[in-house]
């Protein structure tokens, strides 16, 4: 792993996750939110995040994909596993690892709003403003990311690298395009 250039190391990640947790605790005290974790990418961030929270909550998963084995978004979002529980009249926090084009978050927000939650907010560990085409309000954002392909801490390239404890840049010899 020596050839992977690091964007955020474990210490920086841990510190920021804790800060986000504090903000989320304040926003959701006594509201018993449903935390909706977007698979697969956000499973690492979300599992760290929920363990910093003191407020009682419930956890749900939704799975979708917009990237195949490419480094750029296909632009077509597909839900491959929907929620099991009802979120009607519940406070919902959607947890993403990254908002890149924003297409996934926008699609999921629209999808979840149809289920009539009482409120819906978005937490994303990363936001890549240079790539964002859909205007999505990120209520809790970890870091702004540069316009380079990121891997690790749940983020993959062709299903690889999700397990890395840090966030790095895709090595130049991995993948044809490196612009996402
Ligand atoms: C990634 C990431 C976000 C989405 C962001 O998911 O986890 O959900 O892309 O990109 P966007 O803002 O351009 O839509 P991906 O579709 O790669 O699936 P994965 O989470 O299973 O890796």
Order the strands across the largest sheet as they lie in space. Answer: 4-3-2-5-6-7
- Gross morphology: globular
Total number of beta strands: 9
Number of helices: 3
Poorly predicted runs are 176-180
Report the order of strands and helices: EHEHEEEHEEEE
Q: According to CATH, what is the topology?
A: Rossmann fold
Q: Would you tell me the structural class of the helices and strands?
A: alpha/beta
The main sheet comes to: 6 strands, mixed
What proportion of the residues form beta strands (DSSP E)? 25-35%
Radius of gyration, in Å, reads: 16 Å
Bound molecules: 1-O-pyrophosphono-5-O-phosphono-alpha-D-ribofuranose
Whole-number count of domains: 1
- Please report the distance between the alpha carbons of the first and last residues: 21 Å
Task: Using the 3D structure, state the CATH architecture.
Answer: 3-Layer(aba) Sandwich
Average pLDDT, rounded to a whole number, is 92
Relative helix content: 10-25%
CATH class: Alpha Beta
